[in-house]
Write a structure and sequence with these properties.
Elements lengths: L1 E2 L10 H11 L11 H21 L6 E4 L2 H15 L6 E5 L4 H12 L3 E5 L9 H7 L4 E7 L11 H11 L3 E4 L15 E5 L10 E5 L25 H39 L3 E4 L9 E6 L4 H10 L2 E2 L15 H6 L6 E5 L6 H21 L30 E3 L4 E4 L7 H9 L8 E5 L5 H12 L2 E6 L2 E5 L4
Parallel strand pairs: 1-11, 3-4, 3-5, 5-6, 6-7, 14-15
Antiparallel strand pairs: 2-8, 7-8, 9-10, 10-12, 13-14, 15-17, 16-17
Helix pairs in contact: 1-7, 2-7, 3-4, 7-10, 8-10
Length: 478
């Protein structure tokens, strides 16, 4: 089985395992006590903090260990907002932040604050001009990820940090995805990370608050971790997390170059091997190990199961995954196709043979899922002369059962159908109208807002807009 979901979590790095086992016998005591066992535990905790701080690029007394990366983000957001409550109550976030940041933003709104969301372009990269404009009067905090967890796009953190400094607004950077590959550039104010993203144990997060940043830790005061993370420290896990971060950093440059070449191979070959497929994310400014693509006419959950059966563990931001009934907020913000979405994130040590085997398996897996949905063999990119007969849907029903004419074109009623069925019905019907003809699709699935316009862009037809559940598509001329 090939595990291609490194962006979600990694198994324990060998160094982490060794450090964890060794510190179980030495780091069990209370590091706040003055007896021998307590002093030994304190030495382990201090050494781990120094190691992690060196990797991050901060002072040891600026770094706090938290119970998770999510907890670090929530604490950082709440603490910075509370510390700057006299400045204002507005929070600025990018539209593609991790859900933990967006949940913190929602909590801030419920408490009476306001949130300004800055958009991204089609590659998922921050709109720098819009970002700078958002940092106006009353802004207490800005949050920006260093690299996106779904599509791998690296954000212009250094430029964003400069804009924040000029506006006197602290910048919180979610560095969960990029921290294993190197320190985050720029004059940021707060930073978070998560150990299981680099092969450390789950249950260890990093929170960095630079000296001089106004910060009021949320919740009851606690003497542990300078009051920023309540509860007894899990010293063996913390030691293992710091040791593995140092180990992966030592290998990062060589491994990044090797994995980038493998990802380049996937990026170039997938569109050649799979018809009607779109690779998303920035092709250059991206994480070295991650690539995401979306396939028309494919149920995302079914494709993940097919790849799993073929021996590959991958992830998806598709609206059809079992954990959600709405499209990924990242893909929605980018305005790209959400159906049949696959995220491949290669772990360290992945070899070229595994990637080639994946490329061998993928076309058959996609074709099999499309066949189950009675999808068209290929998109219809251009009109042909005349008005051809309706294609055979393979469902045993006449096209007239699914669509009707309204005097101005064709209307397809796909209400109540989930992705990718509305797009499949559109693809089948577009060939039944003449060049310049109009097709209306009635679809109430949330994914249709993304996937119908994305289908038009991929196939050359014109998307003329949406009114409620009605989508207007104009067939392209030859």
């Amino acid at each position: 089985m090939s595990y291609f979901d490194a962006a979600s979590s990694l198994p324990l790095h060998p160094v982490a395992r060794q450090a964890l086992l060794a510190s179980l016998d030495e780091g069990w005591a209370d590091p706040a006590r003055l007896h021998r066992e307590g002093r030994r535990a304190r030495m382990l905790l201090d050494a781990a903090r120094e190691t992690a701080a060196e990797a991050v690029g901060c002072r040891p007394d600026e770094l706090t260990f938290t119970p998770s990366g999510t907890q670090a983000l929530h604490t950082a957001t709440a603490g910075a907002l509370a510390g700057r409550r006299r400045t204002g109550h507005r929070l600025v976030v990018s539209a593609v932040e991790h859900s933990a940041v967006l949940h913190a933003a929602q909590a801030h709104e419920r408490a009476g604050g306001t949130v300004t969301t800055v958009g991204v372009d089609r590659t998922g990269r921050l709109d720098a001009q819009e970002w700078r404009a958002a940092l106006g009067t009353g802004c207490a905090l800005a949050c920006l990820q260093s690299a996106n967890h779904e599509v791998g796009t690296v954000q212009p953190v250094e430029e964003a940090a400069q804009a924040c400094a000029e506006a006197d607004v602290p910048l919180l950077v979610d560095a969960a995805q990029s921290l294993p590959w190197g320190p985050v550039p720029g004059d940021w104010s707060l930073l978070t990370g998560s150990a299981h993203k680099w092969g450390g144990p789950a249950g260890v997060g990093l929170l960095v608050v630079r000296k001089g940043v106004r910060f009021a830790p949320p919740g009851p005061a606690d003497e542990r971790e300078t009051g920023r993370a309540a509860g007894f420290e899990n010293i063996p896990a913390i030691v293992a997390a710091a040791a593995s971060l140092r180990a992966v950093r030592a290998e990062a440059d060589a491994e990044a170059a090797r994995l980038r070449a493998l990802v380049d191979r996937i990026r170039s070959r997938v569109p050649e091997l799979v018809p009607d497929c779109e690779v998303v994310g920035d092709p250059v400014r991206r994480l070295p190990h991650l690539v995401t693509f979306s396939c028309l006419y494919v149920d995302g959950e079914a494709l993940l199961h097919a790849l799993d059966a073929a021996g590959f563990s991958v992830a998806s931001g598709s609206s059809c995954t079992s954990s959600t009934l709405t499209p990924s907020h990242v893909l929605r913000a980018m305005g790209v196709l959400s159906e049949g979405n696959v995220r491949v994130s290669l772990p360290p040590g992945t070899d070229a043979d595994e990637v080639e085997r994946f490329l061998d398996v993928l076309p058959g897996a996609v074709a099999g899922v499309r066949a189950q949905a009675a999808a068209p063999a290929a998109a219809v990119p251009h009109a042909t002369a005349g008005r051809p007969e309706a294609p055979d849907t393979g469902t045993g029903r006449a096209e007239a059962d699914e669509a009707g004419t309204d005097g101005a074109g064709l209307t397809i009623d796909a209400r109540g159908k989930l992705c990718p069925l509305p797009v499949i019905e559109l693809a089948k019907a577009i060939g039944t109208v003449p060049a310049g003809g109009l097709v209306r699709v009635l679809a109430d699935d949330e994914a249709a807002r993304l996937d119908i316009p994305a289908w038009c862009e991929m196939t050359g037809h014109t998307f003329e807009g949406r009114e409620g559940v009605s989508f207007r598509v104009r067939r392209a001329a030859p």
